[in-house]
Amino acid sequence: MIRASCLLLLVLVSLGLADEPEGMLDGMPSGAPDRGRPKLDIFAQGLTEDEKAAILALHNKDRGEVSPSASNMGELQWNDELAKDAQDWADQCIYKHNGYRDRRTSQWRWVGQNIAEGTIGFFSVLTFVDWWNSEKDLYNYADRTCEPGKECGHYTQIVWAHTRYVGCALKRCDWQRFDYFVCNYGPTGNYPKMWPYKKGTPCSRCPSGFHGGCSENLCKRG
Predict the structure, then answer these.
(1) From CA 137, how far away is CA 73, in angstroms rounded?
(2) Which CATH number describes the domain made up of 49-220?
């Protein structure tokens, strides 16, 4: 069993940013196989350096493979402060989003979040990211919507072009018998009625600070 939830940032016309709206999704979406990746160590706690690197690489792979292609998609970098905050929340073993105010960092007032849980010891951390990205098939870029009754905010957060950093955490929740995976994103994405990125020729409109050329359809930092 596996499930996930993404945090959706809502803009209220008269009040500005909402404090803590969120979207929930139960059940395993189609198109998210484990691909034969190694399972988590039965005694795993937290993330290894290799897992952190693999999670970051998979996020960037997903960002480089968006359809339609993105003209302004930059590579993500790992951020230890985001990862620490994600770990602090995962350690609570409470399957819901913590509040926006609790996720504020020294750099960002608004931090996005994807969460997932799976049967203890059964899924690799990359399976959770694969699952979020599988929502790509549910997202209609042209009208910026998901299929009716479906959730695709995990995917749009991963590929939100203005998000620059990610930090993730894993907690083995023994009493509840699930592995809890949390990723925080700075700055947040998922603003309503906005496209996650600008379509066009890859790297043709790289954002400020990304002057390192183009690799795998991503603007590189200079």
Answers:
(1) 19
(2) 3.40.33.10
The C-alpha atoms of residue 170 and residue 48 are separated, in whole angstroms, by 10
Whether residue 11 is predicted with pLDDT greater than 50 in this model: the reply is no
The phi and psi torsions of 51 (rounded to 5 degrees) equal -65, -40
Q: CA neighbours within 13 Å on the CB side: how many for 186? A: 21
For the record, the structure tokens of 93 come out as: 């073993």
DSSP letter, residue 31: T
Angle CA(128)–CA(184)–CA(63) in degrees, nearest 5?
Answer: 65
- Give the other-Cβ count within 10 Å of 114's Cβ: 27
Give per-residue pLDDT as tens, 125-177.
Answer: 999 999 999 999 999 999 999 999 999 999 999 999 999 999 999 999 988 78
Give the helix ranges, DSSP H, for the chain. 49-64, 80-90, 100-103, 125-133, 153-158
Residues linked to residue 112 through DSSP beta bridges, in sequence order: 185
